[in-house]
Design a protein that fits this description.
Helices cover 31% and strands 27% of the residues. The protein is α+β, with helices and mostly antiparallel strands and 778 residues long. The chain is globular and about 90 Å long.
Length: 778
């Protein structure tokens, strides 16, 4: 895989394209991940068309976001409240089964390459074949997962006889039994099985279409998969049926004379429902509508959606083309992987692979939503609506954990049910609730969407806030401070501790935000507030207890080291000698029992350092620098969520070289397979984190109650950063170059904001008629 990049020309088209020579692929599974395509509902692994191109290393996959199988979790020993079922993202029949057989055999491949164009989301393939007796063939293939029609996949294959005459057969079918294997020793890999999750209920086939209807095992879901083919050629076709429910296909036999060609256009369709009758009716309606348009019309509509996205998600890094490409790749996958219907979200691996069984985590709220709020606020809202639609499941989970009122969101899930079998690093991460509240606050600050808060957001914030009072207590031994025991923070190498700093701090932020929403609700919509208060059973006494808990929240601090302790016991443990640790024994989770890891001062990812970033201006820069200096040498960064946070904090505390090093690791995490597991899917939170490092790190952007605030710092070897942001129905263009930062309002109402440079705060105003520029002294 390669892309030729000229760092002096950051606008070069190669930045937008990934290409590979299919004759020489050292890591096929990695390229399948990188070349995956999606539209928020359908996800296609970047595998090749046809069965004859299968290899043992192949990991096929076609996925439907939000559609999952449900299977019991086996326990050798169980206990009350353990998660009972796992959700697994479905593998569904593949519409990519288009196999070419050349009767003469022994064709030499002169070229076999493909390219992903991130500007359009289209993957194209070019093949040139030669035979000493029959001559030459050219084969071109394009495929897209339509952003204009969420149920549609389009594939176009053209076979041309450029020299001589060729006898061939074209098999066009649906693959319902493709395999998928994973590394059983790696808990991140995930394992999906189409055979174990789908049961065929109906099937029909004619000479140009195939329709399959499967019931999801142990689920209410019914899945419909169909393909309709359009063939055009000057040659005479002979048709043959392959009527197999596991791999139904139509086989076309023909001879192409020199100058003749065959073009196959395939329209693949995917739907799901809980009612077979409703499913078939909707499927037929969508198929009829889509078939009224040509492939080119669908292609243009799809590309228009990508064009609209890139118009408001533009970025450029002058002097660092490799890293810019990494960010473009990140935004490309975030945009295509995000659920758009309010009932699905974005998985840790997006729709690009089987990793983590397709589960949703807190990654969405802490990493991805802050990115999308400033790029695609409507998508950010749909991710929050997913949490609203699973609020009742969160209420049920709270009751299972002996929490009488409120809601506790699942640590890992698809349908809302807790799926984490290992509770010390799963259910114990109660900070998932504060992550949801943080995302709602971030979205509200960026969008000013009061209607969402009133209809959905406030209820989620209030119900999840109740959990903290059930989990914590006012400790007389600590002068009545509010303490929270038996939790796991973001650092999964430290489990079941008391007073995890991150958890306590974010609980305080959560309670404070909840109380501020109550005040705003009473002022702006008193009648609506009374209805919500009554329905939830909120009392003045309960709200007063929230205020007291927030005011008295215990935040552990070590006066000798002058740092915030990660928890009550962390600083008393033996430090793990990471400097002398062999690299071949990383990540630790694959080489050491959890109890070995838990006994040491060692971190999987940013914990207290993450709290310092989310704290914004609640702690001094000097305090953040001390915490960072202590915890960074103890952090393995075994999680891809970690590097971007360290980048942001090093930028905030003024160490730009280190900020850049961590930023670069995040920006090209999957393109360069830096963690060695991108074969199982991309790392969507890391992708968002890389963009966050650029915007919240080097541009120093913060969204505060007072408005936007910037603290720009340009890495020394960069000539400039150019980026667009959406904020409260405005589109801003921001350019940071050596010696100046400039702002342009491209649409929306005038805006006032602030910018900090060398300790001096500048208050700025911006209108569409008057761009703003601030000179930055060196």
């Amino acid at each position: 895989m390669h892309s030729t990049i000229d760092p002096s020309r950051p606008d070069t088209g190669t930045l937008w394209r990934l290409s590979e020579d299919l004759r020489h692929r050292p890591n096929p599974r990695l390229s399948e991940t990188l070349f995956s395509q999606a539209n928020g509902y359908i996800g296609l692994r970047g595998t090749l068309e046809g069965l004859e191109e299968s290899t043992p290393e192949r990991c096929e996959g076609v996925y439907l976001n939000g559609v999952y199988s449900r299977e019991p979790i086996p326990y050798g020993e169980t206990a009350y409240g353990f998660a009972t079922h796992n959700h697994k993202l479905l593998q569904v029949p593949s519409c990519k089964l288009i196999a070419l057989q050349l009767h003469a055999g022994d064709y030499q491949s002169l070229e076999d390459s493909r390219e992903l164009d991130m500007a359009t989301g289209i993957v194209s393939r070019q093949q040139r074949l030669s035979h000493p007796q029959t001559g030459r063939l050219e084969i071109t293939t394009e495929r897209l997962v339509s952003l204009a029609h969420p149920e549609l996949v389009c594939i176009k294959m053209r076979i041309s006889a450029t020299e001589g005459e060729h006898a061939l057969s074209l098999l066009a079918g649906m693959d319902c039994i493709y395999g998928s294997s994973s590394d059983a020793a790696d808990p991140r890999a995930g394992s999906l099985s189409i055979a174990a999750t789908l049961a065929l209920e109906d099937y029909c086939q004619d000479s140009d279409s195939i329709s399959l209807y499967h019931r999801v095992v142990d689920s209410d879901f019914v899945v419909a998969s169909a393909c309709v083919d359009r063939l055009t050629t000057q040659a005479t076709l002979e048709h043959e049926y392959c009527r197999q429910s596991e791999r139904p296909a139509n086989i076309h036999h023909l001879q192409l004379a020199e100058g003749q060609s065959l073009e196959l256009v395939r329209f693949g369709f995917y739907h799901h429902d809980t009612s077979m009758a409703a499913l078939k009716a909707r499927q037929q309606e969508d198929i009829s509508a889509c078939l009224a348009l040509s492939y080119e019309q669908h292609k243009q509509a799809h590309m228009a959606c990508f064009s609209e996205f890139w118009q408001t998600a533009q970025l450029q890094i002058e002097g660092d083309g490799q890293t810019e490409q990494g960010l473009l790749f990140s935004l490309f996958h975030l945009f295509q992987s995000t659920g758009r219907n309010g009932t699905s979200a974005i998985a840790a691996k997006g729709l690009s692979g089987p990793g983590y069984d397709g589960h949703y985590f807190w990654d969405t709220e802490i990493y991805i939503i802050p990115c999308l709020t400033l790029l695609q606020p409507e998508l950010a809202k749909q991710l929050l609506m997913y949490r609203f639609h699973t609020l009742n499941a969160a209420r049920q989970r709270a009751r299972e954990l002996a929490i009488e009122r409120g809601a506790l969101y699942a640590w890992r899930t698809i349908g809302g049910e807790e799926c984490s079998a290992y509770f010390p690093a799963g259910t114990a991460q109660y900070h998932i609730n504060s992550a949801v509240a943080y995302a709602i606050k971030t979205y509200y600050q960026a969008s000013d969407d009061w209607d969402f808060i009133q209809a959905h957001g406030a209820e989620m914030v209030l119900e999840t806030a109740r959990v903290w009072l059930a989990l914590g207590h006012f400790d007389a031994g600590r002068d009545g401070q509010f303490c929270i025991d038996g939790v796991t923070g973001p650092d999964e190498y430290t489990a079941l501790v008391n007073n995890n700093f991150y958890t306590n701090f974010m609980a305080r932020k959560h309670l404070q935000f909840a109380l501020s929403l109550v005040v705003e609700f009473i002022e702006r919509a008193p009648q609506a507030w009374e209805r919500l208060r009554s329905r939830l059973g909120l009392t003045p006494a309960e709200l007063a207890e929230w205020r007291l808990a927030a005011d008295k929240m215990f935040l552990p601090f070590d006066s000798r080291l002058q740092i915030h302790a990660q928890d009550d016991s962390f600083l008393a443990k033996k430090p793990w000698d990471l400097a002398g640790h062999p690299k071949e024994k990383l990540p630790l989770l694959l080489h050491y029992h959890p109890l070995v890891i838990y006994r040491h001062q060692v971190l999987k990812q940013a914990d207290t350092v993450l709290a310092m970033y989310l704290a914004d201006d609640e702690f001094s820069v000097e305090q953040k620098a001390r915490d960072l200096a202590y915890y960074e040498p103890l952090t393995t960064h075994d999680s891809t969520l970690s590097s971007c946070i360290h980048s942001i904090e090093y930028a905030e505390t003024g160490d730009l070289p280190k900020a850049y090093d961590y930023f670069q690791a995040s920006a090209r995490m999957d393109l360069d397979n830096l963690h060695g597991n991108s074969e199982y899917g991309v790392h969507t939170a890391c992708m968002a984190g890389a963009w966050n490092s650029l915007v919240f790190g080097f541009l120093g952007l913060r969204m505060r109650d007072s408005g936007l605030h910037f603290h720009p710092q340009l890495p020394q070897h960069w000539r400039g950063i150019h980026i667009k942001l959406r904020y409260r129905r405005r589109l801003l263009s921001v350019s940071l170059q050596a010696g100046q930062i400039s702002f342009e309002l491209q649409s929306g109402e005038p805006l006032s904001f602030s910018c900090l440079h060398r300790g001096r705060l500048h208050n700025l105003s911006l209108s569409s008629a008057a761009p703003c520029r601030l000179e930055l002294a060196h």
